[in-house]
Design a protein that fits this description.
The chain is an alpha/beta fold. About 50% of the residues lie in helices and about 10% in strands. The chain has seven helices and six strands. The strands form two sheets. A four-stranded parallel beta sheet has the order 3-4-5-6, with helices on both faces. Strands 1-2 form a two-stranded parallel ribbon. Helix 2 runs parallel beside helix 3, helix 3 runs parallel beside helix 4 and helix 5 packs across helix 6. The longest helix is centred in the middle third of the chain and has 29 residues. The protein is globular, with a radius of gyration of 18 Å.
Length: about 230
């Protein structure tokens, strides 16, 4: 794949694109905030100028705020939906005609809270559920337009965000980091945390020729944490 990456942190984005290029890959950085309605169009323009086509869209932006329902503010809710849900909606709208031309794919990275929400994850659960519903609706449209649409629900993946939560628990409880991690794993009733590469591998498989029969699928990859149907 030749990549077009977007994020608010221009310095981190430059670091990632340089890493990809150092390994022989091709990557273009388009810094920006996906809450801004004009950014998806700018991303499309940059991708077409650089590569001439768009084959795959992966919506992986947005981290929603955790907390007590009665303490979460209007701004918290607006931010959660504004970035992760409406950012995805706008980017799909902007790229859909090009995905029709290339018989391309959309992969929405939602989360297991969309199936099994909790009291501390009311925003995230609601946003993820909306993204899963959008995936099903667009998959129906994709049958007519020749665009593959799927969603992935990651569980506890060892991203920077999860590592910070483990560190906070360790500090709060006076535990070693490894013990705090084990406690979170046991509480979730899973074998281990997932790795970011495992999510990336699943994305790559879904959009490959071997994965094209997946369509409208909502795939949990969470080490068994989701117990609901």
């Amino acid at each position: 794949m030749k990549l077009v990456l977007t994020a608010r942190d221009a310095a981190l984005l430059a670091e990632v694109t340089e890493e990809i290029r150092s390994k022989g890959g091709s990557a273009l950085a388009v810094p920006g905030y996906l809450r801004l309605p004009e950014l998806p169009g700018q991303i499309v323009d940059a991708a077409l100028k650089e590569y001439g086509r768009i084959d795959v869209v992966v919506n992986n932006a947005g981290a929603t705020k955790r907390g007590s329902f009665l303490e979460l503010t209007e701004a918290d809710w607006q931010d959660g939906f504004g970035l992760k849900f409406f950012g995805a909606v706008r980017l799909i709208r902007a790229t859909w005609p090009h995905l029709q031309s290339s018989s391309g794919s959309v992969v929405n990275i939602a989360g297991i809270g969309g199936r099994t929400p909790g009291a501390e994850f009311t925003i995230g659960g609601s946003v993820n559920a909306a993204l899963l519903s959008l995936t099903k609706a667009l998959a129906d449209q994709g049958v007519a337009d020749g665009v593959q649409v799927n969603a992935i629900n990651p569980g506890r993946i060892k991203t920077e965000r999860l590592i910070k939560r483990v560190a906070a628990l360790a500090a709060q409880r006076g535990l070693a980091t490894t013990d705090a991690e084990r406690e979170m794993i046991d509480e979730a009733r899973i074998m281990r945390f997932g790795e970011p590469e495992e999510i990336a591998d699943l994305v790559a498989y879904l959009v490959s020729p071997q994965g094209r029969f997946f369509h409208g699928s909502l795939i949990d990859i969470d080490g068994g944490e989701t117990k609901t149907f």
